[in-house]
Amino acid sequence: MNVSRQSISKWEGSTSIPDLNKIIKLSQIFSVSLNYLLKDEIDQVDFTGADTNDNMPMISLSEATTLLEAMIKIIFLSTQLLPCPFRLL
Predict the structure, then answer these.
(1) What's the longest Cα–Cα distance across the chain?
(2) Most buried residue, 41, 48, 69, 88, by CB count within 10 Å?
(3) Cα gap 25→23, rounded to integer Å
(4) Using CA atoms, how far apart are residues 38 and 63, in angstroms rounded to an integer?
């Protein structure tokens, strides 16, 4: 995004604001609304459970950890099998 750390510090300290294009890009990157980025106060949303998907299978934390470890191994192994685009001298 070509933003310096000084600019971000000024945004956080409310001494300056980013231009509109950067605000839009930030909302896309973080998948949040423009209101979320621009409002001083964040609206609290109470979880009612109505948004849960009953068709989603439930798994335990240990099952999720095992699944993630297996996925990481697969990704690591698949990257090891790719040809290297350059040679080290």
Answers:
(1) 60
(2) 69
(3) 5
(4) 39
Query: Which single residue is written with the structure tokens 């609304």?
Result: 33
The pLDDT tens digits of the residues spanning 19-77 come to 888 888 888 888 888 888 777 666 665 555 555 556 667 778 888 888 888 888 777 77
> Looking at per-residue confidence, does 21 or 79 come out higher?
21
Question: Are 27 and 34 in contact, with CB atoms under 8 Å apart?
Answer: yes
Taking alpha carbons only, the member of 29, 34, 7 closest to residue 18 is 7
Quote the pLDDT of residue 2. 80
Residues 6+ apart with CB under 8 A from 37: 23, 26, 27
Q: What is the 3-state secondary structure (H, E, C) of 16-42?
A: CCCCHHHHHHHHHHCCCCHHHHHCCCC
Q: How many residues does the chain have?
A: 89
The pTM is what?
A: 0.42
